[in-house]
Amino acid sequence: MAAFPEIEKIRYEGPESKNPLAFKWYNEDEVVEGLTMKDHMRFSVVYWHTFRGNGSDPFGAPTMVRPWEDGTDSVENAQNRARVAFEFIEKLGAPYYAFHDRDVAPEGATLAESNRNFDAVVQVLKEEQERTGIKLLWGTANMFSNPRFMHGASTTCNADVYAYAAAQVKKCLEVTKELGGENYVFWGGREGYQNLFNTDLKREIDNLGRFFHMAVDYADKIGFKGTFLIEPKPKEPTKHQYDSDAAACINFLRAYELTDRFKLNIETNHATLAGHTMMHELDYAGMQHLLGSIDANTGDLLLGWDTDQFPTNVYLTTEIMLTLLKYGGVAPGGVNFDAKVRRESFEPIDLFHAHIGGMDAFARGLKIAAAIRADGALADIVKDRYESWDTGIGAEIESGNHNFESLESYMLEKGEASPNKSGRQELIENLINTYL
């Protein structure tokens, strides 16, 4: 029985459409810079917010109306939920989905029971993938909700919990491979500390590196070829998380010799919590050749926590798409809607409104970014600003032909540096606005 019988497949109707259940900008077959919009974005719907979010918060009980839920945490309910999820994703027209293990199947009293529950739901996920053609962008293990992970999972002070986490990741890797997942994500929800006085920092981070190497070794053993992704976040729920931002993650990956197998999954709301813009985090990861995927959401800058709102700011999506195009796209990652409807948007149809708006915002961002790149005006301003590095002393420095002594001699002879050029910040801001 259909969960959304009144909803037909969402179609592209163009910017003039007044239909709230139609795309105004996302035309999956439209070609931009040699790829279709579908292939540029690789949109993914998340299981945890979209199908498990209930609207509860620290100040109130659940609000979401979900007629397909029977109020139990049974395997049967989880299997039915999986069919509902695929009905939604199929009607939306997104090509991918993503999950935590505990999103899709209930946790049992023992690890063995949890694994059996997971297998039972995976059979339905596999059937639905085959029926619809929808693919798994990535899988991941929830190692932060259960009280056993209060001190962390791969950075815990409890060796038994570390072993449990390893077993849980082992199973989730097997399932991700079985379902054809293209990536595997680690988000260190409790991999960090609250108080350094009771924390052996070096031991915890060494154990984290050891854990990731074990994951790589097991992936090789079972033939999982997907990319491993780390998702930076600076805080919340811990005071400080070890994967705090792109720079910290990249330093960690280099220190533990993991850069050949890991990249980063960058999220907008996490970037702003770290005091950065999304564009900064994407550019930093991209220039290090470690940009793997993105979580598409936004936060509220008036609030100091991870609100995971759907992205509707076209300026933001333009910045994101400019950066993704700069580094050759996001595949084999995707644009994953790690976003939730507001507590007050409690009806099932609100899930469609939210995703349609996010997909349209990214489609507009893509078209604007492509227009900016085709026009070349922004690139010309940047090129002009750095022209001193293209010839003369600048080119010689970048070619490695100078040291402190030779540069001192150069300046003693010249006497003073050449005049600076204007940064043209206001001109650039005005220029970007002409495309919006």
Approximate helicity band: 40-55%
Beta-strand level of the residues, as a percent range?
5-15%
Q: What structural category characterises the helix and strand content?
A: alpha/beta
**Low-confidence sequence ranges:** none
Q: Give, in order, the helices and strands.
A: EEEEHEHHEHHEHEEHEEHEHHEHEHHHHH
Would you report the number of β strands?
Answer: 14
The neighbouring-strand order within the major sheet is: 5-6-7-8-10-12-13-14
Question: In DSSP terms, counting alpha (H) and pi (I) runs of 4 or more, how many helices?
Answer: 16
Largest sheet: 8 strands, parallel, barrel
Summed over residues and divided by their number, the pLDDT gives a mean of 97
| Terminal Cα span | 43 Å
Radius of gyration: 24 Å
Give the overall shape: globular
Structural commentary:
This protein is of the alpha/beta class. 46% of the residues lie in helices and 11% in strands. The strands form four sheets. An eight-stranded parallel beta barrel has the order 5-6-7-8-10-12-13-14, surrounded by four helices. It has a two-stranded parallel ribbon with strand order 1-2. A two-stranded antiparallel ribbon has the order 3-4. The mean pLDDT is 97.
